[in-house]
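INTERNAL AUDIT FORM
Audit reference: QA-55
Scope: verify that the stored structure record matches its stored sequence.
Auditor: D.O.
Record contents follow.
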Amino acid sequence: MEDITERRRTEQALAESERRFQSLAEVSPAGIFRTDAQGRTTYVNPRWCQIAGIPAANAIGDGWLRAVHPVDRTMVAESWQAAMAAQRVSVVDYRFVHPDGSILWVMGQAGPETDPSGRLIGYVGTVTDLTERKRHEAAMAEQLDELRRWHDAMLGRESRVIEVKQEVNALLARLGEPPRYGSAEGEGSTVPRLSGSAVNQPTPAA
């Protein structure tokens, strides 16, 4: 009799815990999902549906994978299978494609869920919208690339300035004139200024 009473208490406690979870998940600002022990989706909350761009019914089982960007789909599926095989936490960034073609970057996280005896009963996880962060990172990367291109262009220009100075000195040497540029002279000028008998000589183009 005591065993039956204890079992009922446990069942009631689990049912109450489930009700609390459902109530919190329904109003949570985070996308929340649950799966069974085989990793098949059994529940997604309203916020998850907004982020993924599909109704809850379409997410059940493996249906949610159809909303994942085709380029990311295999990677996401393999990462999820590996995490389940090891019964470990899964963390992966990927993209959802909405029916209107818009794309949202998300970070998906999930971990094992166990019953009071420690038996695996499924996984519970969240998806977090990373779209704005990814856009910012892309903009920063573009600015960095532009800075690198500018830097390379400046290096190329400085190299050309040195070459021109060397060409001017060589020309003056052929004319019997002393060099116009020393090792540190005229570093700020890109157009050589000649004097003496070299004034009437052609000036090499920079």
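Auditor finding: record pair retrieved intact. Helices lie at 2-27, 46-52, 56-59, 70-86, 131-174.
Action required: none
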